[in-house]
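Regression test case RT-17, inverse folding.

Input:
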């Protein structure tokens, strides 16, 4: 599944959550009256006008999703998925050693150090998500250099997803 397809499906599932969670009392009543899971899916489908796979996703929700903070996070994620994203932003990740890399985005450089390559990659990816892709609503494609083994490219998206690409890969 391509990144745009994953984004569209995630948006559809979150929109189904938003619809059902807008009336939690009704949702709980429907589920409480259902005979079994299939009946519950049918009831949620009909009550909230959802396709079966999205109704099933609503059934998989945990009660913790009913809290205001959880609904707020859902609204934030939907805002990002519904927004128009800008073009890909190029970046570089230059490893000086297994424990140190410099990330450059739009002529701004930042150094990351950690106990090993994986830990550095985790910190770099977190930075690209939290400080670049999400606030700027732009995917980031970072070319990785200086590693004998490891990813050659990191892709992060405002939808808070990321992937590593290895030599000979086309993504993943």
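Golden output:
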């Amino acid at each position: 599944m391509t990144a745009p397809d994953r984004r569209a499906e995630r948006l559809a599932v979150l929109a189904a959550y938003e619809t059902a969670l807008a009336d939690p009392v009704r949702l709980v009543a429907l589920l409480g009256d259902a005979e079994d899971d299939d009946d519950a899916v049918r009831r949620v489908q009909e009550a909230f006008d959802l396709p079966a796979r999205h109704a099933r996703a609503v059934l998989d929700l945990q009660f913790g999703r009913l809290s205001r903070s959880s609904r707020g996070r859902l609204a934030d994620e939907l805002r990002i998925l519904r927004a128009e994203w800008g073009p890909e932003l190029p970046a570089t990740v230059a490893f000086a050693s297994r424990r140190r890399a410099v990330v450059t985005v739009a002529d701004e450089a930042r150094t990351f150090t950690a106990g090993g390559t994986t830990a550095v990659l985790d910190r770099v990816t977190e930075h690209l998500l939290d400080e670049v892709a999400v606030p700027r609503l732009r995917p980031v494609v970072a070319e990785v250099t200086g590693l004998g083994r490891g990813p050659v490219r990191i892709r992060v998206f405002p939808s808070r997803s990321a992937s590593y690409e290895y030599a000979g890969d086309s993504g993943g």
